[in-house]
Amino acid sequence: MQSSGKTPRRRLSRGGNRQANAVLYRIVVTRLRRGTRTRAYLGRRTKQGMSKREIIRCLLTQHRGICEPT
Hints:
This protein is mainly α and 70 residues long. The chain contains three helices and no strands.
């Protein structure tokens, strides 16, 4: 775990394919706007005290695990 400050969080790799990272970000943002399950997830995590940026980071991590080739 790497973080700056007192909040421990897992950092995403800034390297890799920029186009793929941009596409994943667009997918997550679109799902936040239109997906009912993703909006429900947003509501649950917001009640837990997470910021929208942290929630997006979690969603990106989940999608990266699904989309990356093994």
